[in-house]
Design a protein that fits this description.
Strand order of the largest sheet: 1-3-2-4-6-5
CATH class: Alpha Beta
Number of domains: 1
Shape: globular
CATH topology: Uracil-DNA Glycosylase, subunit E
Number of helices: 7
Number of strands: 6
Structural class: alpha/beta
Distance between the termini: 41 Å
Largest sheet: 6 strands, mixed
CATH superfamily: Uracil-DNA glycosylase-like domain
Order of helices and strands: HEEHHEHEHEEHH
């Protein structure tokens, strides 16, 4: 009996490339849906899309888009993004490991709880596409929003600044103060930095690929 023909085994890089191609396609599809969203007809600005690597290990999450983000249409554009990027540089974190988004995608909504509920499915899909190892939840409202997602196997989070806890078996959460609210006062800025630098400790401890 002749030997069966063997199929070529996919190499790790080929597998990763396939995952990346799929993630890019899914993020692009989601981006289009967010940009076409008119669930909050009273908003005066276009929705703000997520930014960064679609398979990032680190998912940076703020509560709502700020005016600078609304002007450019991209999450973490402006002061908060600059502050976070400088912090990541100080911690030696590869920017290609970052993806950033907002819970509430528009910046001019008046009824934020209702807008959050309407944006919930977008955030749920973003997390499913990126599959981060850690979410940096910037503020108590972000932690509350993560709890409302009710993801399969997710743990209920209790807001504790500077703590890294398990959210799902595959994803942890680092809780920090609201970065947007911490930029104009030195005491608040220092508090954000103390919590955020835990990300550097986490990043150093993850095993190399």
């Amino acid at each position: 009996m002749g030997s069966a023909e063997r199929r070529p085994v996919a190499q790790p890089n080929e597998i990763y490339d396939k995952y990346l191609t799929r993630a890019i396609s899914e993020i692009n599809e989601l981006t289009g849906e967010v940009l076409r969203c008119r669930k909050c007809p009273h908003t005066r600005t276009m929705p703000v899309i997520g930014s960064g690597h679609p398979l990032a290990d680190i998912f940076l999450l703020k509560y709502k888009a700020q005016p600078s983000e609304c002007h450019e249409g991209v999450a973490f554009f402006g002061r908060a993004g600059t502050a976070v990027m400088k912090s990541c540089q100080r911690l030696g974190i590869d920017p290609l490991q970052l993806y950033g988004s907002n819970v509430v995608k528009c910046g001019s909504v008046r009824d934020e709880p209702r807008a959050e509920a309407r944006c919930r499915e977008y955030l749920r899909r973003e997390l499913a596409i990126v599959e981060p190892k850690i979410v940096v939840a910037m503020g108590e409202r972000v932690v509350t929003a993560l709890n409302t997602l009710e993801l399969p196997t997710s743990q209920k989070l209790e807001f504790a600044v500077g703590e890294i806890v398990e959210f799902t078996p595959a994803t942890e959460v680092l809780m920090t103060p609201d970065v947007d609210a911490s930029l104009d006062e030195q005491r608040l800025k220092a508090g954000f930095w103390r919590a955020f630098r835990r990300l550097g400790e986490w990043y150093e401890a993850i095993p190399p690929y």
